[in-house]
Structures are given as structure tokens and as C-alpha cells.
Fold:
Amino acid sequence: MNPRRALVTGGAGFLGSHLCDALLANGYAVVAVDNLLTGRLANIEHLRNDSRFEFIQRDACESHLRGSVDYVFHFASPASPVDYAAHGIETLKAGSYGTFEALETSRRCGASFMMASTSECYGDPLVHPQTESYWGHVNPIGPRSVYDEAKRFAEAVTMAYHRYHKVDTRILRIFNTYGPRMQINDGRVIPNFMCQALRGENLTVYGDGSQTRSFCYVSDEIEGIMRLARRSEHLPVNIGNPTEFTILECARHVLAITGSTSRIQFEPLPQDDPKQRCPDISKARQLLGWEPKVDLESGLRLSLEYFRTAVQEERTRAV
Ligand SMILES: NC(=O)c1ccc[n+]([C@@H]2O[C@H](COP(=O)([O-])OP(=O)(O)OC[C@H]3O[C@@H](n4cnc5c(N)ncnc54)[C@H](O)[C@@H]3O)[C@@H](O)[C@H]2O)c1
Structure:
């Protein structure tokens, strides 16, 4: 019997590549579609000789593939504030045309579907921690709207395909996830701090650093994704780590783990930067029996070698 086949859009990205690994480990054949806008071939280099893995360099807004698949994971989208600021229109297209295309593939193949949504759907939330029933507080025309509204639209399209076309859909609301294979210069908190610390630069904290974030280590996130994939839950599910840290606390953890003597430098807060972000994961706990296992300190230690190597490579390229 042929193995079940999964399509992962954004499969050469940080999360997409870890998801490909997990699917292969679970017996799937995997097709990754990625236009390498923010992803890297290096993330899937280790899969090159695996006969069950196929990579197609293509825009997810275009028709994906001819053969059939059993599962579609739509992860293609710029994800970091630096990336979606640089690629605003592409971000809107990945959330709109890309989601339509991925859902059409699911519909044509009778495949299950999951879209990677985000805590950004909650905007600068007025409810804390954020439950899936909270509709969010989003500025529809602010600089972050290219991402937030693309994802909110993608959720709406996903629900519509479920309601009108009976596609077996899932909406995964990912909260800040970090770990090996992240881009080192994408402006997200952990790679920023880790790389600044390892380069001996000051750690940039925006505002007074009292804004909070919760950080989920990638292995926990992927475990949550795999569990959700097996359940027929069509309404959104938060997957993230509910332990909150202030940005300042996070910076201090990074300094301790890297052993860096860098200092903390304060800069003005960017527009619409959320002050608090923390998932309520009661639904994931109840539905999936899932909760994160890796605390921030352990996750930073597990990521240290990757960031150290990445910073060294960056140094080598510069000379
Ligand atoms: N990492 C997080 O903390 C986080 C949080 C919330 C949501 N997400 C979502 O998870 C998904 C993956 O994010 P990530 O952190 O791995 O980011 P990433 O930038 O590493 O991965 C995104 C991938 O999508 C690809 N891509 C972008 N536009 C594309 C297009 N039009 N066609 C084909 N490929 C395209 C990129 O080249 C990249 O490989 C995204 O949808 C993101 O919105 C991530």
C-alpha cells in the first residue's frame, strides 16, 4: 500500500521544515511547496535523499501539484514582522490566493486541511489570556494589518470551505514559536536576542520591556500540530506556551544562557506592538491532551548551538 501523502506549503520554512520531518517520521510521503521567499533550502537539505520527500519550488498562490494528497498543511506566508513589512503584498496574497489554492487542492483530492493561523488574529488583545472565542482587537489598516488581516481572511476562507464544501478543515492559531532553523535576522524576539548576544552586540528591547510574550519551543508546537491533525476539530485551536515572560526577562535569560556580556539597549516601541500576548490553551489540553513540556531556559539551551553556528557562518561570509 502506498503511504499517505501530505502537501506542506511553506515546507522550506522554519515550522514547515520541522513539520515535514514529523510527517515523514509518522509514515507520510511529503511534498513541500515553497517559493523560498523567506525559507531556505538548507532547512530541508537533510531530506534530499529521502525518496518519500519531494520539493517543488513554486508560489503557493499557483496551482500546487497534479497528483493526489491525503492532507494539505497550508503554512506558506512570511511570518516575522520584518518579513511581512518587507513583503506586504505577498503576505496578503499568501493568505488569500494561497489559502484558496490550498483549499481547492484539498477539495479536489478529498484531503484533510490545516492552515497555520496566528495569535496575531487577536491583535493587541483586550482579553487576557486569549481564548479561541475572543474575536480580537486588530487595526485593519495599520502596518501589521497585511499579516493580521491576511490570516483573519484565511481563517474565514477556511471556515467557508468547511461550511459550503464540507472540506475537513482545521485552524491552528500558533503563538510565538522558536528554535533551530529560524532565520537569524528576521526580527523575532528570540533570534534577535540570541544573535545580538552571540555577536556581542547590545540587546534591543523596544519600549520599557514590560510587554509580555509567551514562547513555545518548536518540538512542543509540532507535537500540538500533529495531534490537532488527527482530530476533526474545525474551529480554531490555540497552540502555544502559556508561561508569560516580559521581554526584559527574556533578554536576561538569553544573556545568562549565552554567557554574553552584552548590555540591554532600549528603543521606542513600534506602532501597534501588542502589549500582552498569552494563549489560553484549555481547549488544546482538553481536546488534544497536549501541553508544552519545554520551558524557556531549556528551549534556549536546545537552540544555542544552532544560533552559534549561524552567527559563525554569518561572520565567515562577511570576511
Ligand atoms: N513561528 C511562529 O512563531 C509563528 C507564529 C504564528 C504563525 N506562524 C505561521 O506559521 C507559518 C510558518 O511560519 P515560520 O515561522 O515557519 O516562517 P518562515 O518564514 O520560516 O516560513 C514560511 C515559509 O513560507 C514560504 N512562503 C512564503 N510565501 C510563499 C508563497 N507565496 N508560496 C510558497 N511559499 C511561500 C517561505 O519561503 C517560507 O519558507 C506561517 O504561515 C506563519 O504565519 C508562525
The chain has ten helices and 13 strands. The mean pLDDT is 95. Residues 9-10, 12-16, 33-39, 59-61, 75-79, 83, 90, 94, 98, 116, 118, 174, 176-177 surround nicotinamide-adenine-dinucleotide (CB under 6 Å).
